[in-house]
Amino acid sequence: MKITVLGMGYVGLSNAILLSQSNEVIGIDVVSEKVNLINNKKSPLKDDYIINYLKNKNLNFVAKTSGKDDYADSDLVILALPTNYDEKEEFFDTHFLDDAIKEIKEIRNNLPILIKSTIPIGYTREKNEEYKSNNIYFSPEFLREGKALYDSLHPSRIIVSENGGFEKEIARLYKSEALNNPKVLLMKSDEAESVKLFANTYLAMRVSFFNELDTFAIAKGLDSKNIIEGISEDPRIGNYYNNPSFGYGGYCLPKDTRQLYANYKEIPNALFKPIIESNEVRKEFIAKDIMTYKPKQIGIYRLVMKKGSDNFRKSAIFDIIEILKKENVDLIIYEPTVDSDEFEGLKVINNLEEFKEADIIIANRISDDLKDIEEKVYSRDIFTRD
Ligand SMILES: NC(=O)c1ccc[n+]([C@@H]2O[C@H](COP(=O)([O-])OP(=O)(O)OC[C@H]3O[C@@H](n4cnc5c(N)ncnc54)[C@H](O)[C@@H]3O)[C@@H](O)[C@H]2O)c1
Q1: DSSP per residue, 321-374
Q2: Chain center to CA of 379
Q3: Does residue 158's CB lie within 6 angstroms of at least one atom of ligand 1?
Q4: How many angstroms does the Cα of residue 250 sit away from the middle of ligand 1?
Q5: pLDDT in tens, 3-20
Q6: Domains detected in the chain
Q7: Does ligand 1 lie within 6 Å of residue 92's CB atom?
Q8: Probe residue for ligand 1, chosen from 10, 142, 156 as the CB with the greatest number of ligand atoms within 8 Å
Q9: Across all residues in the chain, what is the average pLDDT?
Q10: This prediction's pTM
Q11: Do 137 and 158 form a contact (C-beta atoms < 8 A)?
């Protein structure tokens, strides 16, 4: 099969590498630096499997800056373009997808399109209605940043929307590359879109639950770890995904929870808005709790959301910084991926020893780098700390 993939971010690149093991794949991105790196077998993203597969595997994969010439003889186009949350419209901004679908449809109306981006519920159906077609499909993507290709090779499940008949071929494409014989689920596109938003909102709810438990424990002088271990031994709750943090963040959870809430419109609900609000309340609490130590200088250890991440998209630490900026306190940052001595008006000190001289170091996630000054590290990373 010849497959054109639009968007060489985490989703597009890992899909392209996965499928180019057995298919001809053309990867498209508007950023020519990314395209050049990929064609030189170098990864634009920090992801061990992507780096290794690009370098060492025999892939039938070429990257370009435009897909126009390839639509004519492609068998499938995969869209892995950004869908950022538009704060004003209170809905995902789908213009990248809208434009790509329009262009593809103008060139070849009968070319199957598979959307891998996260989209509002109803989007695929509405696009099929708009173009009087039934060949736009949706398959939710569940990969994690930094482990994107690993997760694509070991998918927890493969879900494809059922409409024009090509869904079985799409499911076969993904299943044949998976190393773990995953379950395949076919369902209406509105249902497949719902799966993605409800799954991410569940994860955000779980993070918020353990974070608010931790807030309670701090306020009452209790040991969060004991409480969390105690409740997580119940197999219905489970001992995983329960480590407190400053708040949930990253590219997906903040925007997907908001999109699900927006999709409810007038449908009765009371659970979803508080999940969004809880994250804000948590960050305010953490900032306040840090200030109880009366620091004059606060060192912010890393801006990335989690270990191994290569970007700062919607890291919880940014909101904490904004709150702390209002206090009479000096803020300094340690972030080795920032190649400058200033970041958004704050001083960056990438000499770790100099950085460690701050009165208090705040770290969403603990690292061995901080072992020697542990007594002045503020973190709620309870399970990694030991
Ligand atoms: N990052 C994740 O962990 C993850 C997981 C599941 C789903 N998703 C969803 O998948 C989608 C993509 O996420 P991502 O993290 O890969 O995004 P990303 O922002 O990392 O990558 C998107 C890429 O698309 C490129 N691009 C933008 N406009 C383009 C165009 N017109 N033509 C070609 N390329 C273009 C950008 O240069 C960028 O490289 C989003 O909807 C996201 O919500 C992401």
Answers
A1: HHHHHTSS-EEEEE-TT--SSEETTEEE---HHHHTTSSEEE-SS--GGGGGGG
A2: 22
A3: no
A4: 13
A5: 999 999 999 999 999 999
A6: 2-186 (3.40.50.720), 197-385 (3.40.50.720)
A7: no
A8: 10
A9: 96
A10: 0.96
A11: no
Q: Cβ neighbours of residue 25 under 8 Å, at least 6 residues apart?
A: 2, 3, 4, 5, 16, 19, 59, 60, 61, 62
C-alpha 222/C-alpha 228 separation (Å) is 11
Ligand 1 contact, 9 CB (< 6 A): yes
How many Cα atoms sit within 13 Å of 87 on the Cβ side?
A: 1
Neighbours of 376 (CB within 10 A): 15
Residue 370 near residue 357, CB atoms below 8 Å: no
CA pair distance 94, 100, nearest whole angstrom? 10
Residues assigned a catalytic role: 252
Neighbours of 380 (CB within 10 A): 25
Measure the CA–CA gap between 263 and 122, rounded to whole angstroms.
Answer: 9
Taking the CA of residue 6 as reference, the ligand 1 atom at the shortest distance is 33
pLDDT value of residue 308: 76
State the Cα–Cα distance between residues 338 and 17, nearest whole angstrom: 28
287 contacts: CB under 8 Å, gap ≥ 6: 320, 323, 324, 327
The residue-averaged pLDDT of 218-231 equals 98
